């Protein structure tokens, strides 16, 4: 089953995205639009303390209010459901949808109130009286690491969830033999993807059919399984409806606690129940914060700026519960050297709990922070040896002819041409012109800096970090599937088996199937059966759907085409290898069987079918992740199969008084192999950059010394608006992946994986003449100004 | 409290608690779910509707305050079922959206901008949509969609004007 | 995020509104509601009753006489933003208005609502303080007029008492020949509340010396402040001197500090932006003067 030979008709063409039509009409169907008959609504009581024993909960006043159906406490819930799944082997870090016995962060859900309307439920929440006994707490990451800090989960014994050191290659020797070394610390602040739609879920239990129907704003692998386990019901009693549009996710829409809570309430009350987080619920206790990470990095290099070895320690503050979030320290192992020929790496991954909200998977699953650390290292090496930062990257890049390239941690990079992408970006941006522009800005009294980031986007979404960080986990597949059905009138219907949150999977599936079958994708219908009627899927995580759903569609379509060829060959009396398939028809020796002929045979003329062929016309394919079939050995594993590349080159101007940065120029070179839909890839890249601007300059979940959260609303947690996002120029390049059916790679995380590094680099370049630098994201406007003013003061003092 | 609202050219009535926002009333009482709740405190703009032709937050207005205005929601802009207006079509052309959640508010805001300013500059467009947060697109393809729609509206309007002139000459 | 229950009334007249407000001390007037409703949604504000003054004809409109421009409290910000009267006679306010919230909130938000809300970083209160506007407050006993400087007491705190209804604001007109203005603001995002904002208006004499100057700084202290600029009288516009005067006028103000901006940031940027605003107002004055002359000649 080879790649389509000759010209691609639909793949890579600038075709419209089919999903857009319903969205522009306001006809998307989100979970909050699903109103079930007789439905009840949930509101939650948040903890006021970062750590407190729950002494008692008195719900009598709340229950006496009109319209209030029920008040659920954690103790009662814990009797009925099992703890939610942990990624790591940490059985004593138990997590339930409501706090059980003890609240572990401000905002944590302590009780749930169910009422006829959300407003009534909120009224009643105010009447639930919770008696707390405040306990010692820990907020700071490094304090949490200290054995004397109060453990968030006393049964676990400490706040350390993970502390694992990997050594890949001759690190100590490489350090000893390198003439130059430097060390630094950078800190990635706690931000997240913060979709405009919060998480929501509606559930209905049918006690006679013994089936739980779930509609949710979900983007999570193995969601039905996790619901079933927690509720202690058979997995085939859970029916998740995939025909729900998800209002943005970028990783975080994994509301398992919300779902288990809501489903339990629906079962208990025998009525449909819906929980739609409001913005406050979502920000403080949606358990959807992102990585908060300290990097301590040592780099060994030579006078030519060639980096030989790196020691990296990554310490992540995952918040009050584990979930899957510590795995975000594992995924970046698959691109731990970035696009560079670094010979050896020591990597220490540490995850600690603290009395903050729990983390969830965020776009890139830990790769964006890691890329920020790697790119900061390269900038610092350049500065140390007095070379241009671009030149140092050029010298260290893996060369085109070295692919597939095995990095020390065990992943083989599929393909790339970093030097060419870089050259194209410099040419497009007119690098010398950009430097002149920088000089002009400086002459006008502004600070101006150029930022550079060269980053990889591992894609294909394997789950090898699971067995790598948890030996009890033996996962070696992370499949996705497609089924194609051609009806008796010849119309093609493709099924996909997950929800989507804006990635255009219906367009992807129709395009790939249309390409293989040579049928206009606009005539193909794409549907999403519920989970009980679905084939296996691991949902759109890990930049994987172009590769995995694309691969499944490609193969299912080829199987269909092969069937048609066999049917045709039999009628035409020729061996299969002598008949040709084109645009739905089969031809041999001047005779042709049309699409209609073939379909009619398949559906109506069993007597004409090849021996052994089932009637009807249907195929399916379950796609295994390319390259990902082995368990880790000696701390090495093939992580993701494909590696997209992005090269950011930006110019930033900073007003030295106010500290306000502007981005007059933003150029990105992007190579994700064969592009299936250019509009979609472009949107991902532009959106990712905007998201990265937020992480670099504006967004952070901040807790004060009392453990109170300062950024609970959109007035304090600042998402970039159209004002803050510059016009971005994209320079395309295509290095096909040898491991995928069309040469495609992933692009769902593009832009975001490099823009924080580039912005940090640009600001540090801007302020470098003042002898200052910034090493924590976000870099706030006022901090920039304060540092500039501080530098001016110290210069003045020096001069005196 | 009884309210009678003029929504998408129809008078709609309901008996509502004063505390119900226009946003919740549109969604729950009038079945117009194209208006989305994003933050419910006036920052994100997902709930934007047009009030007398100008964009406003439906979460920052109680339904009982909204009588007497001409209210337009996303359901009221398409020319016919299954058809798109110029702005909607332009958003499809440039893929000025991904998840679709902010899209109705974005389109209404763009619609209002183009109704009062047929020649918007990039700055005008950015200014107009700056109160509508989009987390997916980074705004690039949204700005392009509005530029494209403006272009098309200018062509259409010029043709119509020319058509009028011709008719008048003939008349 | 749903408001706690409340009663709603829409009086027919300002007098009726005042009676309603007087009858219930937990009642609140609502106009555009663009600041009040978010507070209610988060249940940080819980009025028992909303008295809707948005459509009262007495509270609408923009008018002017020899001495001042009067804006009715329930006049929408967008109306003021596009008002020829405001542009012609009150260019400083015209420059500040595009910084208020974002376009959709200005479509509904009112001039009086912003004053009554009294956010220390808000633009309309800042211009009112900078120019020494008069604020009319109506209640059952009649109308009381406050100097803007006295009206703002602290963060979200004004001289308004239960039963009061802010009814109009009167901005003084400067009737000199050569007047210019400038408005500067820095915030995290363009539409956010200012870390610091500076509103300046300057009149120059025929020799180009400063004949009068007004400067307000927002976001610095717990309310907008009027900076004493009398020392600039008779001086030529000059950065160093202006900077010193602004520094002297702001350094004793206790600056706010929060997550986004430190007190020292606010102090420093207040001086910088205040200076910039005064200088730019001088440049504006020269430009407007030249424009007026050109028109006069034509």
Architecture blueprint of SSEs:
The complex is a heterotrimer of chains A (800), B (171) and C (298).
Chain A: H1 20-24, E1 40-46, E2 52-58, H2 60-63, E3 68-73, H3 74-80, E4 102-103, E5 109-115, H4 118-125, E6 129-134, H5 141-145, E7 160-168, H6 171-177, E8 180-188, E9 200-206, E10 211-216, H7 223-231, E11 238-241, H8 256-269, E12 273-276, H9 279-285, E13 293-301, E14 307-319, E15 344-353, H10 367-385, H11 389-396, E16 405-406, E17 412-413, H12 418-429, H13 431-443, E18 447-459, H14 465-469, E19 480-486, E20 492-495, H15 505-517, E21 525-527, H16 545-572, E22 580-582, E23 585-588, E24 591-593, H17 595-604, E25 618-623, E26 642-654, E27 661-671, H18 678-698, E28 729-732, H19 755-767, E29 776-777, H20 781-799
Helix pairs in contact in A: 7-8, 10-11, 10-19, 12-13, 15-16, 18-19
Chain B: E1 2-7, E2 10-15, H1 22-29, E3 48-51, E4 54-57, E5 70-72, H2 86-94, H3 103-116, H4 122-129, H5 140-170
Parallel strand pairs in B: 1-5
Antiparallel strand pairs in B: 1-2, 3-4, 3-5
Helix pairs in contact in B: 2-5, 3-4
Chain C: E1 7-9, H1 14-23, E2 27-30, H2 36-41, E3 49-52, E4 62-64, E5 68-72, H3 77-81, H4 84-89, H5 91-96, H6 103-108, H7 111-117, H8 123-131, E6 134-139, E7 142-147, H9 148-151, E8 152-154, E9 157-158, E10 165-172, E11 178-186, E12 196-204, E13 210-218, E14 225-227, H10 239-250, H11 263-297
Parallel strand pairs in C: 1-3, 2-3
Antiparallel strand pairs in C: 4-5, 5-10, 6-7, 6-10, 8-9, 11-12, 12-13, 13-14
Based on the model shown, name its key terms:
heterotrimer, A: 800 residues, alpha+beta, Aldehyde Oxidoreductase, domain 4, Aldehyde Oxidoreductase, domain 3, 3 domains, seven-stranded mixed beta sheet, six-stranded mixed beta sheet, 28% helix, C: 298 residues, Uridine Diphospho-n-acetylenolpyruvylglucosamine Reductase, domain 3, Enolase-like, domain 1, five-stranded antiparallel beta sheet, four-stranded antiparallel beta sheet, 14 strands
Q: What would you note in describing this structure?
A:
The complex is a heterotrimer of chains A (800), B (171) and C (298). Chain A is α+β, with helices and mostly antiparallel strands. Helix content of chain A is 28%, strand content 23%. In chain A, the strands form seven sheets. Chain A has a seven-stranded mixed sheet with strand order 3-5-1-12-9-10-11. Chain B has 171 residues and is α+β, with helices and mostly antiparallel strands. Chain B folds into two domains: 1-76, Ubiquitin-like (UB roll); 78-171, Orthogonal Bundle (DNA polymerase, domain 1), CATH 1.10.150.120. Chain B has five helices and five strands. In chain B, helix 2 (86-94) runs antiparallel to helix 5 (140-170) and helix 3 packs across helix 4 (122-129). Chain B is globular, with a radius of gyration of 17 Å. With 298 residues, chain C is of the alpha+beta class. In chain C, 36% of the residues lie in helices and 25% in strands. Chain C is built from eleven helices and 14 strands. Chain C has helices spanning 14-23, 36-41, 77-81, 84-89, 91-96, 103-108, 111-117, 123-131, 148-151, 239-250, 263-297; strands spanning 7-9, 27-30, 49-52, 62-64, 68-72, 134-139, 142-147, 152-154, 157-158, 165-172, 178-186, 196-204, 210-218, 225-227. Chain C has a five-stranded antiparallel sheet with strand order 4-5-10-6-7. In chain C, helix 10 (239-250) packs across helix 11. The longest helix of chain C has 35 residues, at 263-297. The mean pLDDT of chain C is 96. The chains are: A alpha+beta (800), B alpha+beta (171), C alpha+beta (298). At the A-C interface, helix 4 and helix 20 of A face helix 11 of C.
